Amino acid sequence: MGRQERIARSIVRAIIRTNVNGTKKKASNPLGILLALFSAFFSLYQLLMRKIRPADFAKLRREYWDVSDDDYVDSFRPREGAKDEEALTAIGDMGFSGSTFYATTDQKYLVKSVPRHSEHSFFRNDLLTPYVQHMATHPQSLLVRICDFLGASGASIGRILRLAPSHHIVMENIMYGREEAENRGDAKWENWDLKPTSYFYPERDIADGALTSDATKEQLADEFHDKIVLSQEQADDLFARLEEDTKLLAEHNAVDYSLFLVRMKLPREEVQEEVQPEAAKSDSNLAPPEDGPSVPPQPPTWKTGVASADGKYVYRASILDFFWAKHKIQPRFMTLLINLWNLLISKDGPMSITTTPEEYRERFLKMCRGYVDIKKD
User: Fold this and answer.
1) Whose CA is closest to 10, among 81, 117, 98, 111?
2) pTM for the whole thing?
3) Per-residue pLDDT tens for 13-55?
4) Residue 142 and residue 194 share a domain
5) CA-based angle 72:108:145, to the nearest 5?
6) Region (Disordered): which ranges (predicted)?
7) Are 62 and 185 contained in the same domain?
8) Burial of 2 (0-12, 13-18, 19+ CB in 10 A)
C-alpha cells in the first residue's frame, strides 16, 4: 500500500470510527489496543487522526446545512467488501508542501491536507471560532463549507519526520455533479482558481519565468478572460456576499485566498433571447443539487448554481484557501525576504502572501467586480 492510500485510510477511519462528539469507539481487547498503539507509533504515513472541535462542525452540518450525521458518514464508508482507503480517491499530490487532495466516491466532499504549521495553527487558534459563527449567521456565505477538521494525535515516526500531513480539512465539493454531467455527455464544466494577478510572483516575474518549470508556474492563479453577465440584483447580492466574507478574513489577518469559479454551459435548446435571472430549471440537466453540503438555503445560490442574466451559463463560486495569516512566523519571514528583495534588488512590490490584509481585500474585491458585466433591463 502506497503513501496516498495510507493517508486516505487514516482520514476515513477518523470519520467513520468516531462518534459525533469526536470520541473513538472503544475497543474491548487490551492486547488489540496495545498493538494498535505500537503500530501507530512506527507508521510512516498512516497517522492516528482525531477530530478538532467536532461538536461545532456537527452543529453546522445538522442545523445550518441540513446534512444528517448518517448521510455525512455514509459518504466516507467504503463499498461492501472494499477497504477503508477505497472510500477516497486521490486527486493529486499538491506539490512542495506535501499536501494531498482527495474526493469521496460520491463526489460530495473533498479532503485537503493543511501540512504547514502556520496554516493549521491559524485556523485552529484564530479563525475557527469566528468562522463557525460567521457560517451560522450568514447562510449564503461564499466561504467554502468546512465540514470537519482533522489533526494528528499522539507521537509517531511519520509525524516527527513530516512524511505525511498532520492536518486535513473536509469541505464541500463545489464541482459536485460534474461527473454525472460528463457521463450524460453534457458540455464540459470549466473552472478557474482566481487571485489578483497584479502582485509580484517570483515564479512568473523573475527572468520572465525562465528559472522555474512550467509545472511550478501552472500552480499560480488562473485568469478569467471573459465576463459574468448578471442582473443588477444578482450583482448586488454577489458583491454583498464578497464584502461580508472578505471583511471577516481581513479582520483576522488572512491573505492570499482565492475565488473558485465554476461555469456550466446551458444546452442550446434551453438558451433564450430574454431570460429571468433564476437558477437552471428543475427539469434541466444542470439542475442544482438537492442534498448537502451545498444546501440549504434553497437555490438559486452561488453554491448550487446561479444562471447568468443572458441565459448562457450557470455559475458557482466559493472562496477558498484562507489559511495564510500575516502574523504567523512563516508569513512574517516571507514578508521580510520580499522587503529585502525590493530594497536591494528590484522594486517589484509585495506578493499576495506578503501584502496587508486590507490591501489584499481591496485588490481581491476589485478583481471580482472586474469580472462582472451588468445586463441592463
Assistant:
1) 111
2) 0.86
3) 999 987 655 565 555 566 655 555 545 555 655 788 899 999 9
4) no
5) 80
6) 272-303
7) no
8) exposed
